[in-house]
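Consider this one:
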Amino acid sequence: MSRRRRLVRLAAWTLASVAIGLLAGWYLGAASPTKLDFKTEKGITIGSTVAALRAAYGTDLNVARGEQGPGYNITLSKGIILGQLDDLEDTGKVKNIQAGNFCGE
């Protein structure tokens, strides 16, 4: 494991951190057997609807079909939050959430 970067996997979410202890980014994926109370600052989590995304983030939210299917991104003053959806309609649900500097596994 590199001294500059470390991945920590806890159930269904992954945190990437640098050696000095700063959070570089996070990713919340498929549900785990144990409920994890991990949400955005406005309460969005896995299973939240597109309608809930729209209500929480308004004009900061963009919902569109991308290379990996339906998805969303939220542009905030301090960065972006993005992820995949199961559908673009208001009844569609959040499949995953990603924020910060995360490059996947």
Notes: The first helix runs from residue 50 to 57. The chain has one domain: 5-100. Residues 5-100 form one domain. The radius of gyration is 14 Å.
